[in-house]
Every structure is written in C-alpha cells, then in structure tokens.
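Structural prep section.
Before we set up the soaks we want a predicted structure of the protein with heme C in place, mainly to decide which crystallisation condition to try first. Input record follows.
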Amino acid sequence: MTTHHKLLFALFALLLTSQVTLATTETWDLEIAYTGNLNGELEPCGCTAEGDLGGITRRATVIEQIRTANPDAFIISAGGLLGANEASEQIKNRFIVEGMKQINYDAIGVQWRDLIYGNAFLSNSKLPWVWSNRSDQQFPKNKLIERGGRKVAFFAWYDPEKEKNSAALEAAMQQAKSAGAITILASGQRLKKAKKLFSFESIDILLVKARGEPYGEPQMVGKTLVLQPGSRGMYMAQLKLNLDQNNHITKFDHQTYAIPSTVADAPQLKQWYDDYNDAVKVDFKRRAEIAKKRLTGTSPYTGITICSACHQQQHEIWKQSEHAKAYEDLIMADKAFDPACVVCHTVGFNKEGGFIDHPLTPELANVQCESCHGAGRKHAESKGEMATTNHTWKREEICAQCHYHEHSPSFDIDSYWKKIAHPTDKTEHLRPPSRKGSDYR
Ligand code: HEC
Ligand code: HEC
Ligand code: HEC
Ligand code: HEC
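Run finished without errors. Recording the tokens verbatim:
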C-alpha cells in the first residue's frame, strides 16, 4: 500500500468515526457501548492499512471518549477475549485480561475460549465475568448495573448443550425486568437457534453469535432488539435507546465504527503495553536459547547467498522486492522479537535449522527463496540434481503460507505474482547434462 492510499484510508476511517459525534443531538434514555469477541487480538498486526483496526490501547481511548461524553453509558462485552493457542499465546492472554481490567467494563460474558486455562484463571482475573447457565458457583449468573437512574441486568448463556433447560434463566430475567431493569442476554447463538432456546418475552436486548469482523445490522424481533457483535476487536458499536415505562425499546440509534490507527493509544495503557512487549521479548530470548542448544549439525537451509551463486537473475529480481525488506520492516515496527510476527518475515522460524534471531542467523532474515521453495541445502549441494523441497507446490499454496487474512486482505495471486515474478521457464539451461529435457518437476 502506498503512502497515498494510507492517507486516503485514514481519512475515510476518520469520517466514519466522526459520524458518531455528529449524530447526537437527540436525547436518549440509555446508552450502551458493546464489543464482541476479541479472539486474542491484543493489537492489530499493522501489516496493511486496511487490516490495521482495533487493539486494546485504541479501544481504551474510544471507551474513554464515550464515558466522557456520557458518564452514564454502560459498557459491556459478549466475551470471547482470549486467543485459542494455549501455549504460544499465554503471555498475550495474560496481558489481554490485564488490559481489559484497565478499561473497566461493566460486564463480560464467559465463552468457552475464555476457559482455556480453567475457571481459576478467570475468576482470579477480577474481570466482571458473567455465566448464567453454569451450575457451579465460580461465576455470577448475572450482573445488575445501576447508573444514572437506570438499571441494566446482563446475562450470558453459552454452552446450551451442557444445560439445555433455560427455564431458570427466563425466570431470572423476568425477575430482573419486574425489578425495573432492562435485560441483555449474550447468547453466542445464531438467531434461529436462539428462537428455539428462549421465549423472547423478557429479553430486551439479545446478542447473537459474532459472524466475522464487522457488526451486523440490528433488528427488532417482537419487542427484542437483536444485535450481532463483530469479532477480533476491530470495530465497536454504540447503542442509544428510548424506553417506555415498561422498559421496552421505543426507538434506537445504532452506530458501528472501525478503530483505525488515527485513534490514539490510551496513555493509561502505555505502561501495560511496554510491559507486554518486554515480556514477549524475554520469552523470545528464552526460546532462542533453547533453539541454540538444539542447533547441531548443518541447517537444511542455506540462505539466499548460496542460491544466488547459480540463480543470479532471480536474486536480482528478489533484491528489488518488498520481500527483501520484510525483516527491516519488523525492526522499524519494534517487533523483530515477537514470534507472532517473525514467523512470516523470515525463513524457517520455528523449524529445525531455521531463523532463530538476527545475531545467530542473519542469513535467514527476510522472506527469501527458501521461504517459498523450502529448505534448499540438498538441492544446492547436488547442484540442482535434487529438486527443491516445495517443487510440487502450486503457486497459490506457496503464497498462502503468509498472504492470508488481515496480513494481506487484498491479496490476489495474479497481480501479486507480477510484482515478484522471476523466470520460471529458464532453468533448462542450468540443468545438469544428465537431466537435460527430463521431466524434472
Ligand atoms: C550449484 C548451483 C545451484 C545452487 C547453489 C542452487 N541451485 Fe537451484 N537449480 C540449479 C539447477 C542446475 C537447476 C535446474 C534443475 C532442472 O531444471 O533440472 C535449479 C533449479 C531450481 C529450481 C526449479 C526446480 C526446482 O527444483 O524447484 C528452483 C526453485 C531452485 N533451483 C531454487 C534454488 C534455491 C532456493 C536455491 C538456494 C537454496 C538454489 N536453487 C540453489 C542449480 C543450483
Ligand atoms: C501470516 C504471516 C504474517 C504474520 C504472522 C505477520 N505478517 Fe506482517 N506481513 C505479512 C504479509 C503477507 C505482508 C504483506 C501484505 C501485503 O502487502 O499484502 C506483511 C507486511 C507487513 C509490514 C509492511 C507494511 C507496509 O506498509 O509495507 C509490516 C510493517 C508488518 N507486516 C509487520 C508485522 C508485525 C508487526 C507482525 C506481528 C504483530 C506481523 N507483521 C505478522 C505477513 C505476516
Ligand atoms: C515469494 C515466493 C518466492 C520467492 C521469495 C522466490 N521464489 Fe522462486 N518461484 C516462486 C514460485 C511460486 C515459482 C513458480 C512459478 C510458477 O508457478 O511457474 C518460482 C519459480 C522459480 C524458479 C523457476 C522454476 C522452474 O520451474 O523453472 C526458480 C529457478 C526460482 N524460482 C528460484 C528462486 C530463487 C533462487 C529465489 C531467491 C533469489 C526465489 N526463487 C525466490 C516463488 C518464490
Ligand atoms: C514467508 C512468508 C511469505 C510468503 C511465503 C510469501 N510472502 Fe509475499 N510478503 C511477505 C511479507 C512479510 C511481505 C511484506 C514485506 C515488507 O514490506 O516488509 C510480503 C510482501 C509481498 C508483496 C509486496 C506487496 C506490496 O504491497 O507491494 C508482494 C507483491 C508479495 N508479497 C507477493 C507474494 C507472492 C506472489 C507470494 C507467493 C508466490 C508470496 N508473496 C509469498 C511474506 C510472504
């Protein structure tokens, strides 16, 4: 993405955000800001401007702004905060919990993925977790929040397989409504399934299952307002309500907006973010030590200098490509020590004989020939007699190791290949005499 594009995008994102402040001339009875799954996305990777949305430090700023504009706003989360990879995301998950604490949510639903380290981890985390259909007493079954003369009762009902009978939930919601609260149920279900599970009688607001990143359009089902939160923390939504004397919704205003890099990082989370980076750095060094001890014998990777001895033409083309500065870009982002980034910006990270860190394996920094063609020592030492490791892979498969999801949202094989294309039919002349004309691939 060019600087020009980035500027345009930032401007566009700014327009989206400013809409929220423009549309607030009306008076509302109740305001709720809500977020959906975070799925372990503590921060966006920043690989592309389109994908550079969300992150806890920016979210804290947005929520602070909402609270400043209206101190009576309720802030809730449908849960699903943690990353699913128990071992490799341990540090990140710990920091997500700490960061969310500083944002001061009113209530957060417990989803299965949040239980990755068991009940104790969550209940010790001191976040306002709610899990309505859990028979043990680990989590509150609901949370009543009173503010600005209004009451909100938050319920979270995940895992219907375990406890199919929703009668107790309905009774509790009915009770909350009779006591003058507006009821919110985070269900984690598709609307169709939710209709089978619950009578909507005492549900004022129903949060259904997140379906990808953006938030869904809200809809009224009878007297219930159905909302579909987004996932991965890239967007936020703000809901403003007018209510009748039975606390039924008479009117609402719903705004969804992206959280782009034009949103400043919250200063109160600076220390937290620095601590996070320090912790992953320490962990990175620890892993490097282990890898060093394991490093015996010769690596199956050679690094590009060896390849270019026979493939000068490919090397010349590669030098001009973005791949040749992939590691430098990580250094610029101060992320050359984060395993979650290094894996796609170097050769063979986490693999035997692959990149460890820059001082130990400088020859394997950047996206190189062997990132795509696979470990090439045997091929090089056999002077091309032995095919490269990935010689049977399709072009698309090669790119898909790294160009996916938010890391490369506008990836398109034809236009991208054009930018890095190197001769594909010119190796015949290199072929050893024994293999001339043979069906090598
Ligand atoms: C000593 C010379 C030499 C070196 C060093 C060398 N190659 Fe080759 N390479 C060849 C020859 C010869 C062929 C042609 C083989 C054929 O087409 O029959 C070839 C073909 C290839 C091909 C196409 C066929 C295949 O097996 O996929 C790729 C890709 C390739 N080389 C990548 C690399 C990479 C990556 C490196 C560094 C790890 C490397 N080469 C190092 C000589 C070399
Ligand atoms: C799954 C592989 C993958 C991971 C993991 C990954 N990246 Fe990237 N990164 C890419 C790809 C692919 C691109 C090129 C995207 C494009 O232009 O389509 C890229 C591009 C970048 C760029 C260049 C942006 C520019 O404007 O030139 C930076 C900086 C970057 N990544 C930083 C990071 C950081 C920091 C992390 C970790 C938080 C990370 N990457 C994790 C694959 C990855
Ligand atoms: C970003 C991935 C990528 C990188 C980096 C890369 N290549 Fe390739 N290369 C490919 C793909 C994909 C093809 C096959 C194109 C096709 O589908 O025909 C290819 C084709 C080749 C071929 C021709 C294969 C044939 O069939 O004749 C050679 C030789 C080669 N690459 C060598 C290299 C060398 C040497 C480097 C490093 C200087 C390098 N490549 C870097 C992806 C890459
Ligand atoms: C090992 C991971 C990896 C693989 C495999 C990979 N790339 Fe990349 N690619 C990256 C990274 C990282 C960047 C960003 C480099 C930077 O700017 O820092 C990138 C950038 C690019 C860019 C520049 C994008 C721009 O904004 O101009 C193109 C084009 C590209 N890749 C094409 C390909 C193609 C085509 C393939 C498959 C043949 C491929 N890449 C395979 C990691 C990879």
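Observations: Residues 1, 322-323, 325-326, 329, 344-345, 367, 371-372, 395, 398-399, 401-403, 416-417, 419-420 surround heme C (ligand 4) (CB under 6 Å).
Flagged for discussion at group meeting.
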